[in-house]
Amino acid sequence: MSSAQTPLHKVRGMGSSHSGTGHFWHERVTAVALIPLSLWFLYVMLGLAGTSEVTALQFLAHPWNALMMGAFVCFSLWHAYLGLQVVVDDYVHTAGAKIFLLLLIRFSVIATGATCLFAIVRIAAL
Question: SS3 for 28?
Fold first, then answer.
């Protein structure tokens, strides 16, 4: 049985959506990056449990901790965006609803990320 793909598409490794495996790899890279970042976040949260707000603010005021927290926020939101995009692509079948949900998810991720990063920079600048 012959394939419907052209030889050029077979060589480039692109499927019918013409996007290749970029989305797949972005999900995997963010997941791998989140392993040490999540362990660091868990360690920090357990260490800060029961302390005052001033202690938490002093912790985040340190540049290294602010950088790690920013990376954790960015990678978490990017990973969540990629996962939600797959869910919408797989389970929403009407074009209008799909576009609306994808735009809503993108706006929410950008707004959440901007707010978190602004707060981290503001705390670190104190």
Answer: helix
Contact 72, 37 (CB under 8 A): yes
Q: What class, spelled out in words, does domain 7-124 have in CATH?
A: mainly alpha
Reported pTM: 0.80
- Helix 63-91 to helix 53-61 angle (10° resolution) is 90
Listed by start position, the domains of the chain span 7-124
**What token pair was written down for 60?**
């985040």
Q: What is the pLDDT of residues 43-55, one digit of tens each?
A: 999 999 999 999 9
Residue from 50, 96, 26, 16 nearest 5 by CA: 16
